[in-house]
Every structure is written in structure tokens, then in C-alpha cells.
Fold each of these.
Amino acid sequence: MSLASDLLERFRALWHRRRDEEELAEELRFHVDQEAAQHVSAGVEEDEARRLSQVALGGVEQVKEAVRDARGTRLLEESLGDMQYALRNLARNPGFAAVVILTLALGIGGTTAVFSAVDAVLLAPLPYEEPGQLVRLYGASVNDLSFRGFSSPVQFGAYREQLPSLESVAAILTYNTKGADVGAGEDVRRIRVLPTSANYLAVLRARPEIGRGFQPEDENGSGIEDNVDAAPVVLLSHGFWQDQLHGDPGAVGRTLVMNGVAYTVTGVMPDGFRDPVAGAVDAWVPLDLSQARDPSEAGNHYLTVVGRLRRDASLARAQAELDGLSLRLAEQYPSIKEERARLYPLKEDIVGSSSRALEIMLGAVGLVLLLVCVNIANLMLVRGSERSREFALRTALGAGRTRIVRQLLVESLTLAMAGAMAGLLVARLAMAAIVVLGSGTIPRLASLSLNPWLLLFALAVAIGCAVVFGLTPAIRAARTQPGDALRDQSRSSTGGRRSLRVREWLVAWQVALAVILLVGAGLLLASFARIQRVALGVKADHVLTFELNLPSARYDSTARAQFYEQIATALAALPGVRAAGGISKLPATGAYHQWGVAAISGPLAGDAQRGQIGAQNRTVSGEYFQAAGIPVLAGRTFTQGDDARAPDRVVVSKSLAERLYPGTNAVGQKLHTGGRDSEIIGVVGDVAVDNEGRSDTYVYHAHRQFAGDRNWALMQVVATTGSATALEPAVRRALAEADPQLVMFHPVPLDEAIGQGAAQRVFTMRILLTFAAVALALSALGLFGVLSYSVKLRTREFGIRMALGAERADIGRMVLRRGLAVAAAGIAIGVCTALPLTRLMTSVLFEVSPLDPRVLLGAIAFMGLVAAVAAYLPARRATGIDPIASMRVE
Amino acid sequence: MAESDGELLQGTLEMLVLRTLAHEPMHGWGIAHRIESMSGRVFLVSQGSLYPALVRMKRRGLLASEWRTTENNRRARYYGLTAAGRNQLQVERSGWLRASTAINAILNAHWALGET
């Protein structure tokens, strides 16, 4: 006899259980017959012989039990039996099983997915060495220290040299998305290029995979496409190196033509290296910092500045140094006399805007998980007490209490496992949904993956909850005397009311949690509605936009000036197109080219205080104002005559006209901005700077006159009578006709381009709304379940009441009142809890008070309505009770 | 039946079953009957202990079983010794002999009778 053969035999026995049982029965039958035959042959009567032999055997069933024990398969067999029993039981109650599994799935899936998102975005450190030392430097003003603006080259030059607490400071040109056309002819593609200062890699402590980074002498402007005499260099991303150069290990030193200019590849960055601010780019070129010592550039802000704090320096000390330096710069350069700068930890800066949204989501998920647990607890308790009679009966019939507990454990685990499986599925789906919904708005979301530890955590919580509350009734049943339990159920007409009270409280809390989520979702919904209604000053629907870059190598400033007008005319001629034009920055998509503007005529001319303001400067081509739906209020817009030969002319916004030329007609007045004196030829309507409707003053320059300033790579704006996206192929064809080598870069409807900033709020709102809906459903389900159960419990009582003359409607009202009382308690708790919590949402709300009474009332009304429906159904059932039948039930 | 004085210790029952089957395979009733008659009806084998014992011994590989037809044409399960069963019988028989010799020696010793 070996252990192996023993185990083998046990398992064999397990598989052949049925056959073994039949054989055992036959064997024992044979034994009895044989015994009887023996007695008969000894002269005993046939019947007596049979009786004697039965007695000798001592009870067939006991022998069978003893044999089953001897087989050594009892534990396994019984567990299998429990499992089968559990499945049968659940199949008999598919509604209960479905609700529990669904609840668990939502709890596990939702929690895991959102936890993972928060973990990836909020908690994962920046992928650089000693990321805690990285800081971001923002330009601010004396009046508004919290302003987060760009820095000028002069300021950057000073920061780089005069801040001892920062070990290195780098500048990045994230100001506008700089694209470059790579390749030639039909294969031309547009890539994203990021100009950086030479010490960029030193600040991030990153090294190229092959080759080297930039040298200080690269900052002399050789990377700027107009400067074709110098030998420009380029650093490639791993992905671009793979795609374009097929991962050529000898890529360093090779030539890459971008915008028609030959660049020398100096190195390749390792896979996964991204810019902390700009994200994934295809290539880096040196930033032209030759203006860093040009005093006239002191007030020209376009640089993003990041730095690395010395390990022995504190942020406070660095800030103190920066404050001192800002004062010195203010003295030295009058144009920036009101400017200051602030340092922020880079990580806080990057995730800062999303972190509140994610924290709110985390809170929502926590509430939902809590709700799930309460719901599971309630369901399990209801079911447990429904079955307490069954347990009592089985105990009375001799079932061991541990046996009953074990069976319930198996049942709870079966349910929990099914819920866990469904939860995994939900988690996967939710992750995919989060990535789709949040891509582009939440940084680093693309790197999202399910965190196994979080998954484990959610599984443990949900399963633990199911098991604990699944076992509670069994343990209680095991403690009570079976006789009491049986009596309680059958005789007492209002039995089980104490346990009912517990469940009513649980439901009240469910309602409270749902109310909190409803209020949160309602506030976001109100914000969103408010944003949608914000007047931006442009007509953003039915407008297609795309970026059009004219490579400097093939287009000089004269050719550019001519081509942008030509293409605007060609696009305007397309069927269905109302107007077409170009602009240096799409409306309501953020501040840009905020230059100083001074009135040099009119009442405020020469007034250093009121005669000088900062304004948004834009360069336009074609019929931009018409295409964007900006009304002309006075004078005219640009025409063919406003070209390089004509005197400089500008169009200004209404608010600028009012501020610089109060009480007079602005048309015909003169102003100084962008290094030129210009005459105002027209006044147009105000346009918001961002999608929240923040207003600012604008100066519009004619591209025809301003083409020489730089290569503007104007955003094209095409207004149509039909769908914006449907217009895309026609525009592409028109573009190819004009110049087949040009790229229609990033075509997108204008409303979508403007909406980008609101996307984060939409994302948060959608998730919160989903959670609120789930919470609402769960709490309604809970209320319905508990009331239905109480009606079932009190069927007999109601029957007696009716028999004694109670009106059916009274009974219904009684149940309804009970349900509404529970809901009201829950709503009260929920509102009291929500009030302090919503204050945390202030930063994601837009023009909505966290205590908005309409949102609060709406949430209360909505919850009340759902609760009323959930309470009405059981109440109706109560009125339908037949008094005679109810007393016969037991 | 036969609970008090005729009940066999489990190990003893298994030894007797092995011995009974040493000659030829038998069915359960046959084994019980044989043990009872061979012991002069001193040992009464309860079915509640016989059949579990048979299952246990089978599980340990001491017995093998097969269904056969009896002389009066009924199907019955016959148990027979395996090689391991035969070895086990030898081991138990010599163990029993040693033990019973020792016990006899003790029981028959004069001082053990309480004589002074």
C-alpha cells in the first residue's frame, strides 16, 4: 500500500461514485438474501428469516454511511455536493444571483479600472531620474502671482545663470505645436518637432540611445529653418528613428530633410523617452537663443522653463532667489517691470489640473464600492433570513451546524467567484472606455494598464464582503434553537422585524450614498451646461480647421503671403463653403502672442498707465473673420490692397477699441505693437481666449503685411453649410491641386478644437454620471428588495388586518410610508454628507456654486422619485394580498 | 448484535479476513459466515464493520474484487487476496504469534496469578 495508490483509489472512487453506490446496494442486498436463505434452511419462516437478517445487518443506511466513510472521499464529495446544491439553489433564484453578480462586477470592475487610472496618472512618478527635484518655472505678474505664463529669452538667460539653487535650467518651445514636413513628393508627412535649449537632456538626466544631445553652440539659431547657412542638427525619438530610418544604427550623421532643410542627425533618444510637458514628439531641434541678450526681446514670452533643483536646496530657497532675480530684471528691463516668476514641483504641475478630477473619481469609486458592499450585505442578509427556516429545519433533521455553515460558505464563494469573473470583464471594458474617453485630455493615460495589486484588493473586498454577510445569517441560525426559528417564522405574524430594522438602515445609507453621487454628478452637469452656453464670440459649428505649413525652403515670405490668400480663395470657391481664411491661433483655444500694445494717437496716446495694455496678437489671411463668424462692428477688414507695400494696418477687437480709445472712433487711430506702428482700419466683435469664455483684447495683423515676421504656418478655417468633416476630401483635393507636397495637418472641426479643454470636465462628468446611475439603481434595488421582503414577512399580518376591516389602500399606504421614511432618512443623511464634500469639487466646477440649490433640489427630487417607484411596487403587492389565502400560507 | 464480547478489533478483523481469503476468493457474506463458524461463533462479524473494512483493505491494495455468479446463480462481489495482501497476512500472522506467545507467557506466569 502506497500513498499514491491510496490517493488514486480515492479519486477513482470519487469518479465512480454512482456505480460504487449501486454496487454497494447490490452487495448488501445479496448479503441480506443470503442471510435469510440461511435462516430458512434452518427452518425459520420466510418472513421471519428476512426480518432476522435485516436486524443482523443493523440498518442498511448506516452500513452504507460507514462504507462511504471508509472510501475516504467524504469531504470532497460533500463539497461537490454543496457546490451542486449551491448552483441549484442559485439557479432557482436567478434574480438574486444576477443582482449579486452584477453588483460585485460593478464594484470590482469599476473600482479597479479607476484605481488603475489614478495610479497611472497621479501616483506614478515622472519617468526621469530623481523626478522629485524637477521644477517648472512660470512667469507671473505682481498683480497675479498665481498666473502661469511663459518666459522670455532674456528672462530664461538670467534664470539659467543666476539661480544657484537650481543645478540646471532648460527652455522648451511648447508655445505652439511646431510641426515639420519630412520627406518629399507624395511621401511627405508632418511630424512634431520640439525645440529645446542645449541643456534639456541634462535637466531631465536623460541620455540618447545612440549619438549625443545638443551642444551650447547649437543654440545660435542654426535649428531655425530660415537660417539655412548653418548646419542644423536634430535629435530623433526612438519611434521616428524606427519608422523613418528603419532603426539604422548608423543614423548619427545622416541627413534628414525637414521643411526642405537638411538636418544632421546627432542622436536617437531611447524608447519611451517623452517630454514632460509636451509629451510624445518625433524629434528635437536646438532652440534659437541668440535673442537671449537682446533687451528688446525681454517682454516677448514664449518659453516653457523647467529646472532641476540641487539636492541640498529647498524649493523655498530657490523661490527666494528667483524673487530677487525678478526684481533685478524688472529694474534692468522696463518692459517687464511688473513681472515675477514662480516655481512649482514639475509633477504637481503636470498632474495638477487632472488630479482633482481623478481624486473626485477616486472618491466616487470609493462610494460605489461602499454602496456595493452595503447592497451585497443587504441581499445576503435578506436571503439568509428567508432561509432561516430552511436552516432550522435542517438542523432539526440532524444536519451538523458546521455542515450548514460550510454549505453557505460554498454558496457565498460560488457567488463571489462568479461576481469576480464578471468584475474582471467589467474592469477590462471600463479600462478601454477610460482610455478612449480620456485620451488627449488626461496626461499619460495611454500608458494605462490594470494594476494587479489593485485588482486583488477589489477582489478581496468584494469577496470578503460576500462571504462575511453570507455567513452571518448561518452563524445566527446556528446559534438559535431550531424550534424557535421555526416557530418565529410560522406563528408570529410580524416576525423578523428587528433584522428588518437593520436592513432599513442599510438601505437608508445606500440612498445617502446615491444622493452624494447624484449631487456631484449634478454639479458637473450644471457646469457643463454653463460652459456650453458661454458666448465665445465665434460661430464654431460647421467649420473645418487644419494647419497648413509652407516650408521656408520652397516658400519665401512673399510666396507665403501670396499662397495663403490663393488657397483661401480656392477653398472659398468649393461647393458649400461659405468663407475660408487663416489665423495664427484658433479662437478660444488659449492665450498666444500676448504683446504690449500702446496707443500712439487718440486721448490716451503717451499715457504710460492707461495707454498701454497687453493684447492677444493674431495674424490672419483670407476671409478669416467671415469664416469664424466674427462680426465687423466698424470700418472694414483686410483686402487685397493691404499688402507689404501698403502702410501697416490692423483690425482690433471691440474691447481694445474701448480701452485704448475711449469716447472716440477707433477706426483711423494708430497703435504700436509687434515692433510696428499701425493704423486701425476696423473693429470686430470680441472673442474669448479660452472655452470658458475669458475675454481679452485682440489686435489682428494682415498676413500679407506680416509674412516677413516669421513663417506663420497658419491654421486654416473653412466655414461650410454642411458637415465640417464631410468637407475634408474636397479641401484635400483643392490643396493637392495647389501644391501636391503640402500636408493637411490635423484636420478637426472648430467646435471640437475649442472643446478640447472642456474634455476633462466631460470625462469626469461622464464617469460620475455613470457612477451616480449605478448608485441610483443599487439603492432603488435595495429599497425595493427590503420593502418587498417586509411585505412578504407581514403577509399574514396584513391579511389579519384586512380581515379585521383595514382598507386595502391603508395597507398600501402603510408600506409606501415606510419606504418613503427610509428614503427620506437616507436623503437627509446624503445631503448633510454631500454639502462639505462638494466644496472639494470647486476647482472642476464652472460658474456653479458647490452648494447650488437647484442641483441639490434636483438630486433630492430625483432620488425621491426613484425611491417612490421602488416603494410603490411592493406597496401595490401588499394591497393585493388575499386575507384568506394569506392565513393559509403557512 | 455481537457488540459486546464478540466485537473484533479493527486490525484483528482485517487479519481474519486476510486469513479467510487465503484459500479462495469469497463474497462478503461468505467471509462473515466463515469467520463466525471457524471461531465457533465466538466472533460475530457485524456488517457495519465488515464492509467498511473490505473497502479500506481494497483501497490499500490488499484485496481485489470482482463480480461473479454464485452456485445458486446470483451476482455477488468476490474478494480475493492480492500479492500485497498475501505479504500482509504473513506479516500479521507472525506479529500475532509473537504477541500472543508473549501474552500467554505473561498470563501463565505464576506470580501473575496473585499467589504468594
Amino acid sequence: MTLALLLEQLFNGVQFGLMLFLMAVGVTLVFGIMRVINLAHGALFMLGGYFLMAALAWTQSYALAVPLALIGGALVAVVIEIVVLRPLYRRGPLDQVLATFGLSLFFNEAVTVIWGRESIPLSIPPFLTGSVEIIPGAAYPIYRLVITGVAIVAGLLLYLLITRTRVGALIRAGSDNREIVAALGINISLLYTLVFALSAMLAALAGIMMGPLLSVEPGAGDPILILALVVVVIGGIGSVRGALVGALMVGIFDTLSRVLIPLVIQTNATSALVGMAVYVLMAVVLLFSRTGLFAAHRG
Amino acid sequence: MSEFVLEIHHLCKAFGALIATDDVTLSIRKGETHALIGPNGAGKTTLVGQLTGELRPDAGRITFDGRDITNLPTARRARLGLARSFQITSIFDSFTAEGNVALAVQATEPHSFRFWTPAERIARLRQPARRLLEDVGLGRLGNLIASRMSHGQHRQLELGMALAIHPVMLLLDEPMAGLGIEESRAMSQLLASIKGQYTILLIEHDMDVVFALADRISVLVGGRIIASGTADEIRNHPAVRVAYLGEEDNELDADG
Amino acid sequence: MTFLGRRGVLLLLLLAVAIVLPPYLGTYYTRFATQIAIYGMAALSVDLLLGYTGLITFGQAALFGVGAYAAGMLTVYGVTNAFVAWPLAILVSMLFALAIGSLSLRTRGFQFIMVTLAFAQMVYYFAQSLRNWGGDDGFTVPQRNHLGFVSLADHATFYYVVLGLLVLVVFIASRIVGSEFGMVIRGIRDNERRVAAVGFPPYRYKLVIFVIAGGIAGLAGALMANHAKFVSPATLSWQLSGELLAMVILGSANSLIGPILGAAFFLAFRDVLSDFTEHWMLFFGPLLVARVLLLKDGIWGMLLRATGAGDAPAAPEVDGPELTAPIADSKPGRSP
């Protein structure tokens, strides 16, 4: 284990963490503002990858395909919000969990109808292949650097949106007190739709960027969703800062443990420990603080 | 044993920059009916939360029946005899009225890890429950599902449940809240009938009830107790008048 | 008394159908009915948590799977007597439930859902990693357990044993939810804050029911290992946890019988539709959404209403001064 290798894995961890952040911030925003837990969020990640693939096949151009895929994700999200989520705002967690679970079952099956059950590999865009020596001795893939950059930019834009714009102020206010925002005459419905579409686009963006790394297949979003939920538990429900810190923690912890644990423990149990590492982290955080590290609402 | 059932020593609690409980010291004697009044936002809810164990104070001590309960969980305090009724009705919606009170009676047992005998048939739970329902005026409504009861009946049920756990002290959080004229009369008669049998800390906005029932009154404004004394002393207290200037003694003013 | 009578008649009717019909229809249906009974038992365990305690768990499949793995492993190691293996499977799942519950039950509401999901995933990954036990592919169980001198290899015999156990579980569960313990549990569902305010510490009661439910799920898992003679991590998947929740809600939560009917519906739906298309899930998803959005009750509830067996009757409104105020709404949307 050379230092260069370790640093490379650290970078991978940060990059993975930032992808998780894009997912987790959507979950936490939707919950924080609309008090809805959305188990179909993973499906939006998955659809991002599928839409990219379909748009590429259609337009042969990344410049067109990426925005198209994002728009596709947003459209699906708007339909979901209007048809399924709106009636659920007044309902309890059980109804929301089951309805969004039903949605994710539907989407996972729908993609197999359209594109089959096989896992479809997506190639890295030709202009982003290759590596760059950022640390002497270790070449780091350009693609991963680029998507890390995109995620950081997305995060910054989100931060600016939430802290500097009117819409952002409404989002923050709505997170604290929906009734007041509604009473001010703001169209709460529209705000909710916007927030949901935003969260879906972030998930789709993550799916688009991870597509070439993970390949596109039915159910691709589910393991990512679960990790995103772990991030939200660790970071605290409703907290964007928590989503960022939690995501980086999970990303780095998961990636490093996959590399380091097999070095230290060489038994049959190794791969179990590797998969479980993140959940152990979550358990430790929970013992430390029942509501996560940065809970926005008293738990 | 001390003559004081509840002693609050220099209790402090702040939420960020907002000081909700500002060095509150208060003592309640055994058998006393002590009313706590104050304008909206005075910090009554926060104080109640710290007394019942739902909020942790930043500083200070709470002694109940000789024991330091400052950090005890809610259930432990109830077992020590601190019974409460809620400002916003908090009952078991799917249970009958009798079931609600029976569950409170059940709470007085050392534990409830009994898994076999149907609870509905256990006389030592149901009989006291029926008696308590009579006491609070719900005698004929034992079989009514709680969610179908009126608001006034809910308030009566709240009281019944508080009485069921053999309280050393009753903490009644706005028992008159939301009641109509007839119901208010019935409720104040009810409270008058239990006064003296129990130590009562009464949080209320309804001044008629407060002046009729309270032995002593404390006034909470901005998180501090600005005055504490008999009804007459409070009525004539300058600081209290200032605090209440513009506030109506109105039994309909039921927000906490 | 008519109400009690009608509901009792309905239950007896269902039981009679369960006893007579499947073996009459042949091996395929007997096996199918066995599967319904097994999933019904697992779904019942979810209902104990969901319908009676107000705990939404997305991790019950983990306990189901633990029971299956325990029974399967014991058989491979030569412990084939059901009187030994099944209690052991129950014990192991209860221990897992104790571990998972003691941590998860510190959280509430949405967090609890996510945490149970995460812990179940932990168990899933653990099972996947068991190279000696087939890893992701699982392993076959060489034979079924036996009850001493009674072999369970025959499908009809096995079905009756499973059915008998299901009836026993329903009976025990119904005693539990009607007992003093059950009252505390239901109180927690209705209003946990109130439960604490009268003097019950909620955590320990929730933990006990969580462990009990885990044991029941473990028994169902052990039966599954026997039924399929195959055990794999798929029995631990979170999709199965979700399906169990769906079964409860489709059949009517808070009823013990509802989950069993929900399991029957789910499996029948899958069976019938997969004859037409492999994409039957495409229809199940929206069905679940529709049930949540459009229907107020599940199969058992609808059945009770349709046959006039109704809900528990409320006392008739009595006139009196206490009733001058209008009937208040029950607290809106007071969810678990």
C-alpha cells in the first residue's frame, strides 16, 4: 500500500461521497420541506443513467444528451409529484413509504420492459478518457476528476440557491414552518413541485455521471438509495450540511474500508466486514447522537 | 418529609438566543393549589416540559417529593407521582374511555409484562377505571371510543387519567382550554371537588377559575417569575398589571 | 353478540377452506397454500409491529432470513429434528432482533424506517459474504426437518403442520395484543408521549414486541427453508421487507388475519399475472400505490364490512350536559 495508492483511494472516496451527497441532499430536502420520505429516489438515479443512454443513442452528442436526460428526469419527477406525492403530504410515513416503494417497483420493472434486464455498459465520453498525474506516480482518471468537479459546482450552486435567492429563502422558511409560508400567500404547491424536481434532477445528475462507472441496469439506484439514507441518518434529517459531511464520511469510509480491511483481516469474513463497515459507522453515530450529527429538527 | 411537594431551584433554559426559562425558583406546598399564569410566550410550555421530563434544563434543579428529578425520564416521574394533563388533548384515540383510564391504572403496577389474560377482563384495572370515570363525570360513556368523544369529554378524560396514577401532584396544563360555557362550569366544579385532596399546579389563562381555585398564584413573564403570592396580592401587584395591560382575562384565550 | 358471531363464523369459514381446499386441488396448490401460510406468518409479525405498535420496519426480512439460514445450516450439520431446529431458529432470530432493536428503537419515525432498513442490509451483506454457504447463490437444504417419527417430506403433511403453526401463532399473537402488555403496545401506537406520561417507559416495551415479532419471523423463515429446501440472501432482501409491508397493508393492518389474506392476495396476484407476463411487477407497483391513495382499508376490513361483521361497536351516544359541544375530530394525521 503505497502513499500514492492510498491517496488515490482517498480521492475515490471523496468522489463517491460527492455523488452520495447529490442523492442525499435530495432526500433530505424533500423530507425537510415536504416531510415526505421518497423511496423512489433510487429510481430517479437509475433513470438518469437510462435516459442518458437513450438520449445518446438518439442524438449522438453528449452536449445534447446530458441536458435531455436531466430534463427527462425532471419531467418524470413532476409527474410523480403531481400524481402520487400530492395526496401523500397529509398522510403518515407508512403511506408515503409504501406508495414510493410501489413506484420504485414499477420503475425497476418498467426499464426492463423498455430496455431489457441486461446490464448495459456505458462508455466514458471519448473526450474525457485518459488519466492525469496529479500525484507523481499515480495517474488519476480524468473522468472522475471531472465529475467530482461537476458535483462540487452543483453543490455550490445549490448552496447559492438556498442562501442567496428568494426561492431559497422560501425553501428554508418552508422547512421550518410550512403553515406560515402558505399563509403568506406563496404558492406552496408550486414550491413543493420545484423542490421535488430539483431533488430529482440532482439524483438524475448523479445517475448520469455514475453511468459510465457503474453501468446501467434495473435496480441500479437501490443500493445507492440505501447508502443515501444512511448518509441522511448520519448527517441528520433535514440538514444540507449534514448531508455533505455525512456523504463525505460515508464515501471515504466505504471506499477506504474496501481497500484497507482486506489488508488487515484475511478471512472468509472479509467481504462481509467490508460491506458492513458503513452500517457500523452509522450505528456508532447513532449511539453518539440519536438524531444524527446536524439534525435540523429536534428528533 | 418536607412540606414542599415540588421545588424548582434556579431553573434555566435557553434556545439559542431565546431565554425561555430565566432563573425560575418556585415551591409548592403539599395540598396547595398553585396557579401559574402569564401572557402568551412567557415560557409556560417550556417550564412544563422541564417539569415533566420532555426537556432538559440548562441549569438548575427540580425536587419532587424530596427527590431530585431534574434528569429523570418522563415515565419515572409519573411513577413517582407526578401526573399531568395535556394542554392539547393527548389520549389513546382507539381505546374506549374506560380503556384509556384502565391503561393509566395499569401503569401503577410494577410492570406490565403479562401476555396472556385479556386486559379488558381484569377487574383490578377496570373497576377503578369505572369509578374514576364516574368521578370526572364520564360514568355513562365508558364504552365510547375516545376518538368519537367531544372536546369537553376529552378534557374530562385527561383529568381522569391523571387521577388514575395515584398522583402526589397534579400538573394540569390549561384544563379549561377550548371549553364552552357549560363545559367550563362542569370542569371548574370538578376541579373544585378535587382541590385539597391533591397538590395541584394549575397552568391556566381562565382568570375566573384561577382566582376561584388557587391558594397561591405565580406569574411568569418572559421566562421569569415576576410575582408570587395570594390572589389579592397578585391582583394588586404593579408589575403584574403592567404585564397584563392589554391582555383580556378571557376564558376563550386558550393559546399557550 | 351478532358481530362477534359473524366474525367468528368468517374466521371458521376461512379456516375450513384452508384445511380442505389445497390438498383437494393437488400438490401444486398445496405447495402454494404452504407458501401463503409461511409468508402470512411473516407478514403477521410485521403487523404486530406496524398495526399494533406503530413501528414501520423495513427490516423484517432480515429476521425471516436469519431463521431460514439457521434452520438450513442446522440441517446441513445434521440437526434435523424440528423440535430442536425450529426453536433454535426462533432463538437466533430473537437474538438478532434484540441486537437490531436495541439500537434502532432509540430512533423514531422516519429515522426508524431508515435505520431498520440499513441494519437489515447489514445482515444481507453478511449472508452474501458466506462463501461456505454459497454466497450470493445460497445453498440447498438436503432434506426437510422431521417431527420425530413424522417425516415432513410429504407436501400435504408439511402443509398441515405449517397451517397448524400459523393458527397457533395467530392465537398466541391475539392473546398478546389483548393482554396488559398488548394494551401498552397499542397505547404506544396511539400516543407514545401519553404512555410515558402515565408511567410506562416505552423503549423496553417496544424492544420486547420487536423481539417477539422477530421470533415469529424467524419461525416463518425456518419453515421457508423447509418448504423450498433452499436458502439464499434473497430471503433477506429489503424488497422482501417492503413486500411484507405491502401484504400487511393490502390485507388490513392491525388485524393479524389481514396480513395472511394480504399474503394470499400478493402471491395469487404474482402467480396469475406471471402466466401472462414476466413483467407482473409493472402492475403490482401501481396497485400498491392505488391501494394507498384510493382505498381506506384492506381486504380483511372490506370483508368484515361486507358481511356486516363490522368494527367493534361504539356505545350509543347518550344525551347529557357533557355533550353540548360538537363532536371534535380525532387528532388529524397522527402517524407513528
